[in-house]
Every structure is written in C-alpha cells, then in structure tokens.
Design brief:
The complex is a heterodimer of chains A (about 210) and B (about 375). Chain A is an all-alpha fold. Chain A has one domain. Helices cover about 65% and strands about 0% of the residues of chain A. Chain A has a two-stranded antiparallel sheet with strand order 1-2. The model of chain B has no long low-confidence stretch (mean pLDDT about 85). The chains are: A mainly alpha (about 210), B mainly alpha (about 375).
C-alpha cells in the first residue's frame, strides 16, 4: 500500500451516499420490500426498523469483511447466516429490553431481518471482496437507504391514516369537525404497496437515467 | 354552426406548433372534436373502420345510464320524504327536484376532478384528450351513497384516474374499471361512510332505519317483496336500486351492440347458479344463503355491475369463450363473497375487480387452447 486513503475520500463517500438515492436498495434494487410494507403503518416502528437494519448491515459487513480471507468459499453462506443471526438476536434482545412496545409492534419482523435480502446481498456483493472500512460504510449506507424509504412511507401512512406522527396528533381537531376523516386504506398493506410505487415514480422522474427503456 | 366553425378555424393557428398557445394544443383539439366530427382520415395502411368511434360508443353508454340516473334522483327524494314522514304531502316533481339537487353536485365533482386530471396529463404528455372518462365520470356518482361527502368523492375519483388509469397509459390501457376502483378506494378508506344505515338516505330522521335491504338481511329481517326491489324504491347507492331502469339501459346497450351479451348473460347465469348452490348447501342459519336466487340478482349492485361495469370493453376478456368464462366467474364470485363473507355484502365490486385482474389470463388460456386444438387437427 503506497499511500493511506483518507477516511472520507470521494470514493468512500460515494459508497455511503449512493444507496441513499441513485442506488437505493428498496426503490431501485427492489429489495427488502416485504418488511417495508409490513412495518410502516406507523412512523415509530419504521424508524426503529430502519436503525435495526442499519446496525445489522453495518456490523455484519464489518465482521465478514474481517473474516473474508479465512472463510472457505463453499461454506460461506453458513458463516454469513451465523453472523447475521447472532447480530439480529442481539438487536432483538436490546429492543425487548429497552423499547418493549416498539419491539412488540415489530413482532416477527425483527427476527426476519435475517432473511432481508439487503443484508445478505451486501455481504455477498461487497463485504466478501472489500476491506473493513469501505464495507462498514457500505453497510451503513444501505441500511440508511432502506431506513429513509421506511421513514417516508411511515410518515405518509401515519399522517394520512391516523392523523398523527409518532403518536402526536398533527391534524387539527377543527379539520375533523369540518368533516375530514382519516383514510383507512392508508393503514392497510395494499396502500403501502401503492405508496412504494408512488415513491419509485417520483424518484425515477427526478432521476431520468434510472428509467429502463 | 357556421359561426362556431369560423371561430375555431380563426384560432387554430395559435395552438399549432410554434403558435402562442402551443402548450394547450390538446385542449383545443379536445374542444374541436367535442363540437365537430374530426375531419382527419387515416393516412397510411389499410384500416377498415365503421362509424362507431370512441366518442359514439361512450355517448351510447351515457344514454343507457340516463334512465337509472333519473330514477336514482327520484328515489333519493322519495327515500328522504319517506324517512321524514312527508311522503304523502310531497308531489312527485318535488321529490325528483330534491334528488336532482342532491345528486348534481356529485356528478359535477366527479367530472371536474376526473376530466381535470385527464386534461392536465394530456397537456403534459402531449397526448390528445380522450372521451374515456365520460362514462366513468357518470358511473362514479351513481355507485356512491347519496350522503357521501363531496371531497371524498373527489379524492376517490382522483385516485382512480391517476393510479388506475393514467399510470397505465390512459384510456384503453387500464387494467381495472376506473369507476369501481374509485368505489373500492372509498369503501376501504372511509368504511363508515359507505356502510351502516346513516348514509343511504339524504337528511334522514334519526328514528328511521335507513339500511339497504342487503344490510337488513344480515340482521335477519325480511326483504322487501320482489316487485319493490325490481322497480327500485329501496335505499341504496344512487343509481343501482332500480333493476327495471338498469334493464332498460341493458336493452339500449345490447341493441346497439356496445356491450357484449355474452358477458351480461353469463354474469346473471353465474350469480343465479351460485345462489342456487349456496342456498342448497349452506344451513339456514346463514341469512344470505336463505335468499332466493332471483332476489340475489335484484339485490344491491348486482344488476348494475353486470350491465354497466362487467361489460367494460377495456377491462373484460376479449375472446368469445373468454367472455363467457369471465362473466360467469364475476357472478360466481359476487354471490360467493356476498353470502360467505357478510363483512362485504357488496361482493359485486370486489368480484369485478378480481376478474378484471384475471381477464388477460383467461384470454391467454383461450388462445393457447385454440392453438393446441388447431395443431392437433393438422397432425391427423
């Protein structure tokens, strides 16, 4: 190695910021859709879920990047699963200990982070072929890219479906007296799918190069 | 007439390429083809066309809807007077006028919102304006409860036009019937405004129960007799109560050949057979299974859906055999949902939307079967 690369060089920054928009795991690669539909009826679980996935993705990438030269290729999937499962169980236990209500709302979806395509995808595609620091940034970037979409959807669905944000009422009572009503469809799963579609629509029309011919 | 033509011709250059108002080109052509028959002819290729274009098809359907709509207006007034106990003292004319004033804002809102969105999208994409919304825009208020708040109708219409139609490419490209999509959106978004006994009668007195016969049946109450339900003086969505007026519309559609008789017939057959089957199989404790098959066909939106919405040429099956299968399954599922899931007594809406989704698959299977049969014939 001739010269040490700065911690946040342009290349490193691209690793972390790319997944936030142009290379977003949810709306560009269409990964991790199931949990994005399931946990976004309210904003709070959406935020917690985004953070949990970010933590798991980042540390799974770090650990597997450290181990990448010692894992025999043929059993790498098992090793990946062991690492990811360990991290997920830790996150699950932490949530149960410190954020019990949210943990109950998220129910099985914390455990199902193990099967989240984003995590396995980043390990396979990135961590097994890159050094520790870039892998960490890649994991954080992809986790946050997933989290951003969850937060957008959670905010829209909670505001329009329940009239609240994080449990606080944001639609003024006067509006209800005037005849406004919460949209019940917003908190049903089908609307989440339509909402992802709308987010993709808006995103693609702002980034024309992503539109398939 | 001459005056109008001259006026249009005078202003035409402004809207053409390079003109001042070029951006509004499609609005101009829209207005022009609304007022006059388009003078453009096909320029290349051999295209055999008859005189029925989209505009005429649509206007026939609108005309077929008129009897049900007028009766619906009268019925709104009738139910209002009945609920408030002033029926004997009110003239028929007043009843109609009351309903007319109640229903008119719903029609205006649906047209303004829907056509507004279509115009805007046409400008943005540089398309021409289509007549596709003329029918949907009239059907939407007819399948809503009379007490539906106008802003909810506007929102449902906007949802149906944008998500159901424009993102698929506009008129003729949609997978689901836009009017039904508006109703489905309304139903799942604001369930309290589309069920129960408070929404079907305008300004009802509190003591009077105003549930639709379908909802009554769920509580085990007796249904109105057949003739009342056939003529349609019962609470319900604006345009769907009178089977007689709907059949008048069906006659118009069938004589002009705008709607397909295969679909219409097979929807009724499917519904009838399913009601017969469920009535025989299920125990009498299921209140809906107890209703005679013929009454099932008169109840709720079954007839309206069968005549005006299942037959939508865009979203139904295209092949001859496919139309029979499609129609039969619409009737089949409508009654199945109504009887087996009392949470959704209006099974017709869900049945048609479901079969809209499957219509292309049915067509594909029919075509594949034809190909296979012909190949077999060749081998012999």
């Amino acid at each position: 190695m001739s010269k040490r690369e700065p911690l946040f060089s342009a290349k490193q920054r691209a690793l972390m910021l790319g997944p936030l928009s142009k290379n977003n795991p949810v709306i560009v690669q269409i990964l991790g859709i199931c949990s994005a539909l399931a946990v976004t009826a309210k904003l709070e679980p959406a935020i917690v879920m985004g953070l949990a996935v970010t933590v798991v993705a980042a540390f799974a990438n770090v650990i597997l990047s450290l181990l990448r030269n010692t894992i025999p290729t043929r059993i790498r999937i098992i090793v990946q699963l062991v690492v990811v499962a360990t991290l997920v169980i830790m996150v699950d236990q932490l949530l149960k200990a410190y954020a019990y209500d949210v943990s109950k709302q998220l129910s099985v979806f914390v455990g199902l982070i193990i099967t989240n395509c984003i995590i396995m995808g980043r390990i396979e595609a990135f961590a097994l072929g890159n050094k520790v620091w870039p892998s960490f940034l890649d994991g954080v970037g992809n986790g946050l890219g997933y989290g951003v979409i969850l937060v957008i959807m959670g905010a829209c669905r909670e505001a329009l479906g329940s009239g609240t944000l994080l449990g606080f009422q944001i639609v003024p009572q006067g509006l209800y007296d005037f005849g406004y009503a919460n949209n019940g469809l917003m908190i049903l799963p089908p609307m989440a799918l339509i909402l992802v579609g709308i987010v993709i629509w808006v995103h693609r029309s702002r980034n024309k190069e992503l539109i398939e011919s | 007439m001459r005056l109008l033509r001259d006026f249009l011709d005078k202003h035409k250059p402004k809207f053409e390429k390079g003109g001042k108002l070029q951006a509004l080109h499609s609005v101009f052509t829209g207005v022009e083809s609304f007022l006059f028959v388009p003078d453009r002819t096909t320029s290349n290729g051999a295209h055999i066309r008859d005189a029925i274009d989209l505009k005429r098809t649509m206007i026939v359907v609108v005309l077929a809807l008129v009897p049900a709509l007028l009766f619906g207006m009268y019925n709104v007034g009738y139910q209002h007077a009945l609920a408030n106990g002033v029926l004997a003292t009110t003239s028929h004319c007043c009843l109609f006028l009351y309903g007319f004033l109640k229903v008119l804002p719903m029609i205006v809102v649906s047209y303004v919102v829907g056509l507004g969105i279509e115009f805007i999208v046409a400008q943005m994409k540089g398309h021409e304006i289509n007549e596709g919304f003329l029918v949907s825009g009239l059907i939407i208020p007819m399948i809503m409860p009379v007490e539906a708040p106008l802003w909810m109708i506007a929102l449902s219409t906007a949802f149906a036009v944008v998500i159901g139609k424009e993102i698929f490419g506009g008129t003729g490209m949609n997978i689901w019937n836009p009017a039904l999509l508006a109703r489905a959106f309304f139903f799942f978004s604001y369930p309290s405004k589309m069920s129960g006994d408070g929404v079907w009668i305008a300004d009802k007195a509190d003591a009077f129960s105003g549930a639709t016969p379908l909802a009554y049946a769920a509580e085990g109450a007796a249904l109105p007799d057949m003739t009342t339900m056939f003529w349609g003086l019962i609470p319900g969505s604006v345009g769907e109560t009178s089977t007689f007026c709907i059949l008048l519309g069906a006659l118009v559609l069938l004589v002009t050949g705008v709607a397909n008789w295969r679909i219409m017939l097979s929807v009724f057959v499917g519904g009838y057979l399913m009601a017969l089957l469920l009535g025989a199989v299920l125990p009498a404790t299921n209140v809906y299974a107890d209703i005679t098959p013929l009454k099932h066909l008169l109840l709720g939106g079954f007839a309206f859906g069968a005549v005006f919405m299942a037959t939508d040429p865009v979203t139904s099956s295209q092949t001859g055999v496919g139309k029979f299968v499609y129609g039969f399954l619409v009737g089949f599922f409508a009654i199945t949902i109504r009887v087996l899931n009392p949470g959704y007594p209006e099974g017709m809406m869900l049945a048609i939307l479901l079969m809209n989704t499957f219509a292309p698959l049915i067509d594909w299977l029919v075509v594949q079967r034809n190909i296979k049969r012909r190949l077999n014939r060749k081998r012999i």
